[in-house]
Design a protein that fits this description.
Layout (H helix, E strand, L loop, with lengths): L1 H4 L10 E3 L2 E3 L2 H15 L26 H9 L15 H11 L1
Antiparallel strand pairs: 1-2
């Protein structure tokens, strides 16, 4: 559907009638629909008793990270994807590491 919208003239969105008022602003329409659908999904759980669950007692004591595990993950990344959160493109590093292994 998204692809079909690009490069084409958007059709006019019909006016929305709320309490005898005609709304033509798209943001106002979106806000009205958001409030409406949010109200539809509210559940009154004020009289609901939560189940008694056993207390979770397990804990993580060690984490084993080996260079081979990290290397395997890096080599299997799709280098055509976007840059990381550090704003560095990782593709060059991964390709160099692949070349070193050969």
């Amino acid at each position: 559907m998204v692809k079909s919208l690009f490069g084409r003239q958007h059709k006019e969105i019909p006016l929305l009638k709320v309490n005898d008022e005609l709304i033509d602003d798209r943001k106002k329409m979106a806000d009205i629909f958001n409030v409406y659908f949010s109200d539809q999904s509210n559940i009154d759980d004020s009289n609901v008793q939560l189940p008694n669950l056993e207390k979770f007692t397990s804990e993580l004591t060690t984490i084993e990270i080996k260079e081979i595990y990290v290397e395997d993950i890096l080599l299997n990344l799709d280098t055509s994807k976007a840059i990381g959160t550090d704003c560095l493109y990782q593709g060059g590093y991964i390709r160099r590491r692949e070349d070193e292994r050969r």
